[in-house]
Amino acid sequence: MISLKNIYTKIPAAFLSAVAVALGLSAETFAAAKDIINQGSGATGASGQSLEGGIEIVTNILLFLIGTIAVIAIIIGGIKYTTSNGDASSIKSAKDTILYAVIGLIVAIMAYGIVRWVVNLF
User: How many CB atoms lie within 10 A of CB 30?
Assistant: First the structure.
């Protein structure tokens, strides 16, 4: 049987791992954004940044934020699931939390693909 003490000692390690992955992704995203701003391509605005580059920066940042929120929601759902102690309503709530986080992540990835397709189309 899993004890609550055992679960709560492992949560910080899982959280720190998720934060490390998120920070790695954000550093890459912001480095790419800096390169786009510095290089610029196509028609540029007053800041020297192209419209395509600006849209790409915004979508990358939003995708990163949504991904981070989804990971946090999945972790919360997992914690709720492990601490439910067999209560049917708590288990259903935890599964719903995880399901909605995954669905939100899939929708965000699809939206990212659609935005990339539209930007590349024009």
Answer: 14
Question: Is the Cβ–Cβ distance between 25 and 17 less than 8 Å?
Answer: no
Per-residue pLDDT tens for 72-94?
999 999 999 999 988 999 999 99
Closest to 73 measured CA to CA, from 103, 111, 46: 103
The number of angstroms, rounded, from the C-alpha of 25 to the middle of its chain's C-alpha atoms is: 9
**Cβ atoms within 10 A of the Cβ of 72, count?**
15
Q: What would the pLDDT profile of 98-110 be if each residue is shown by its tens digit?
A: 999 999 899 888 9
Question: In this structure, is the dihedral angle defined by the CA atoms of residues 84, 104, 16 and 65, taken in order, positive or negative?
Answer: negative
DSSP string, 27-40: HHHHHHHHHHHHH-
